[in-house]
Amino acid sequence: MSTGTDAVSGRRDGPRSAGRLVLRAVLVTVSRYWTVAALIAAWVLWIRVENLNQIVAPTPAAVFGDVLGHPGVYAADLGWTLLNSAVGLGLGMALGTALAVAVWASPVLSGLMTPMALIMRSVPVVAMIPVIAQVVGFGDTAVLAVTVVVSFFPAFVMAGSGLRSAPASVGDVFTVLNASRTTRLRLLLLPHAVGPLLVALRLTAPTTVLAAMLAEYLLGTHGLGKLFADSITFMDTARAWGTALVATVVSVACFVAARAAERHGTARFS
After folding, report:
1. What is the Cβ-side half-sphere exposure of residue 213, based on CA atoms within 13 angstroms?
2. Does some domain include residue 56?
3. Higher confidence at residue 178 or residue 58?
4. Do residues 149 and 260 share a domain?
5. What average pLDDT does the structure give for the chain?
6. Is position 87 within any domain?
7. CA distances, 227 to each of 83, 126, 195, 221, 241 (Å)
8. Backbone phi, psi, residue 138, to 5°
């Protein structure tokens, strides 16, 4: 008799447990993404209160409908933007790290490169794009050069900081062992600079995507920036806003991925 009661109780607890799991998942989702829902609600409210035309500001339904209804239109240009961003990010971080090592190795280069890097960083990206285009040419080459410039400075600064902040006690061990500068760099300084470089990656990854899109908007022949420019030209505001939405989502995804890489790398090299 008790066995039957237990079976009935188990069948009742099953749906209750499933319901609690669903409720918990809903609460977690709401707690994480309530700002997105609030932003969309404010977007709808703004259009209704101001009584805006679709040409001025499309509704969320029109924007999401265009993105989900025409994925092929966005996918090709998104691929170009991601390619330019990834290649430019890799080249910029490699160049920044290499110059940071050169500055560490030579006081003369330190006096030359540091002021130049600061000047490049202080100039807005929009102002640099025409200059870069005049040097390397218009089109996708200029877009790639812009992403390299944007990602160079954070890597240069963070790598230099990591090279200079290695533990003095460990450095004394290398000194006692009469290790060469190359050995000290390879076994001590570069591993210690991995953490700061990952911080630079987290800070630069989303910015590189937006910089690539800006350069594509002004100069490019492909990419989300070009798609945005064409949409504005033909007054297709739903597609223009959809392009901005895709770029925002991709930038956030790049930030999340870079943050995960930073946590993994910090845990491994710390």
Report:
1. 24
2. no
3. 58
4. yes
5. 81
6. yes
7. 16, 19, 37, 9, 11
8. -85, 160
Q: What residue type is 5 in one-letter code?
A: T
Residue 255 predicted with pLDDT over 80: yes
Name the nearest CA neighbour of 81 among 130, 146, 125.
146
CA distance 81 to 79: 5
pLDDT band with cut points at 50, 70 and 90 for residue 52: confident
For residue 187, is it within any domain? yes
Contacts of residue 201, Cβ cutoff 8 Å, sequence gap at least 6:
89, 93, 258, 261, 262
20/68 same-domain check? no
Instruction: Name residue, tokens 């630069």.
Output: 204
**The total number of residues written for the chain in this structure:** 270
Residue 27 banded pLDDT, cuts 50, 70, 90? low
Whole-angstrom distance, CA of residue 154 vs CA of residue 148: 11
My answer on whether 47 and 101 are in the same domain is no
Is the domain of 115 the same as that of 178? yes
Tokens at 165, concatenated? 């902040």
pTM over 0.70: yes
Structural domain of 13: 1-51
- Does one domain contain both 88 and 149? yes
Q: Which amino acid appears at position 49 of this protein?
A: V
Give the largest Cα separation in the chain, rounded.
90
Where are any strands of DSSP class E within 66-192? none
Query: Where residue 83 sits, what CATH number does that domain have?
Result: 1.10.3720.10
> Can you read off the two tokens belonging to residue 120?
């490049």
Question: φ, ψ for residue 51 (rounded to 5)?
Answer: 55, 55
Separation of alpha carbons 154 and 158, rounded Å: 6
* CA distances, 117 to each of 17, 209, 210, 219 (Å): 59, 21, 21, 24
- Give 191's contacts (C-beta < 8 A, 6+ positions apart): 269
How many domains would you assign to the chain? 2
